[in-house]
Amino acid sequence: MYGKAFAPEYQGDLGSSLTVNSSYDEVLATAERARRDAGSDLDAARAALALAEANRRLGRAAQAGTAWRDSYRCARRAGDAAGMAWALWSGGTLARQCGTLPLARRLLSAAVAFADACGERLAHGYALAGLAETGRIQGDYAAVADLHERLLHEARAHGESRHMVWAMSGIAQMHRNTGDHDKALELFTECVRIASEADDARGRAWSLRGMADVLSLRGDTDRALTLLSEAEAVCRDLELAGALAYNHKMRGNVLFRAARYEQACTAYLCALRAFRGMNEARGTALARLGLAKARSRRGRAPAATLEELAELEREFERIGLRQARQSVAAFRSELAAA
Question: Residue 1 — pLDDT band, cuts 50, 70, 90?
Fold first, then answer.
């Protein structure tokens, strides 16, 4: 069994006025007031953490970076190891979003250590989940598969729906990437059900995107696009800038697989503008790859495509994205065969 989704990153008085589905304009306004009115370093740390998370999810990397560091310093002055763990988790998550994965691992590992030392179970779980997601994004499935399963077991044991969806989505993505589409679809569908029943709109939007991806691989383009439209509405309602950009990139993938290359280019360009606007290196590179492939299918000169693929391969190597590098190699082989 599990309860309604909640947002432990909104702490103290903020936790009573903000929910997991609060819009980020509301979070920013509430947290900014709390930061101005903070009567202690502990209150200031909690307000700055909420500011960091709202800015990160709105794609404002610089503001998010300033806020999580502010949260960490305030928590350190207050002698609050749990607050320091939460701030490091936020910083590590931002680093992963910006494509600096080695920094993400360092910050998240430090968050795990602080949380473990003070017995802050939720911060410990969130930081471990961040490490698991970082490894999964890099394609290091052997190292993180057991961690995903462990996190799912712990989430079930404590009835934490949001963590269940995170862990199960990660497992589903690994099944998808290794070719077990039946299992991936089963898990993503279960994620949608849990997120819906737990009133976790964010988790539902991400899970719908996963479902759409697998359905598209099976050739069910119309159903996939319908699910992406449903997820897009949630992203817009909650102002989930990053999730919306990845939704547009997935729309491009779905349209590309359906050989609707002109529409795919439009979707990839939309995603690319959004990713560049929020300094999201991983998303930017992935959208560029999709756009390069779609333009190639529309008749772009092979030499220009190969040049861009070489540039993207270097970028994926810099970020540490194993799966994306394999995609580049596969498309280069297709061009060579053609």
Answer: low
Q: Which of 75-84, 94-103, 109-118, 188-197 has the lowest mean pLDDT?
A: 94-103
Q: Quick count: other Cβ atoms within 10 Å of Cβ 78? A: 17
Calculate the CA dihedral of residues 84, 112, 52, 164 and round it to 10 degrees.
Answer: -140
**Residues 123/85, Cβ–Cβ less than 8 Å:** yes
CB atoms within 10 A of CB 307: 12
| Averaged pLDDT of the chain | 92
Residue 336, Cβ density class (10 Å: 0-12 exposed, 13-18 middle, ≥19 buried): exposed
CB 179 within 8 A of CB 141: no
> What structural domains does the chain harbor?
1-138 (1.25.40.10), 141-235 (1.25.40.10), 240-338 (1.25.40.10)
Say how far apart CA 189 and CA 261 lie, in whole Å: 28
- Rounded to two decimals, what is the model's pTM? 0.90
Question: Can you give the pLDDT at residue 2?
Answer: 63
